[in-house]
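Appendix B, example 12.
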Amino acid sequence: MQVKSRHHLRSDAVSDVETALEEQLGVTPDGDAYELVEFENTDWEVVLIDGEPQVAYFDDEPFLTVRGANAYDPDRRIVTVDAGAISFVSDGADVMRPGITEATDDISPDDLVLIAEESHGKVLAVGRARVESEDMAGDEGKVVDSLHHVGDDLYEFSG
């Protein structure tokens, strides 16, 4: 990915990002330097916190990246998948009901969510929920659209 622009965030923009992450995920980033990176030929905008791509904007909404989620260990908006779903989710597949073992009770349709694997709790992807928490698990149907996953260009980007 080619960097189009890169600049430090003003303190009010840093506060906005920190407040959004606290409200959504219950995490408070703690960094000394916050830089916004925009890329050529893509809609990705990433916030580097001390040089690490830990936050990205999804439809103008700041949310943790896979790397950021694994660094901060959030406890909200998490959809957990079983071992059988790991390879699909890691390859960018949308999440289907049969692969879900649980979901935190704070998810509404259109919310950004983190998709974690059940054995170690590692986050594999970021997605957008299609249904409420209580409707996540079941026998059939797509319930989370994948937006960012382990191994994609955003994951591989290093500041």
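The chain has a mean pLDDT of 94. Residues 74-155 form a domain with the Archaeosine Trna-guanine Transglycosylase; Chain: A, domain 4 fold (CATH 2.30.130.10).
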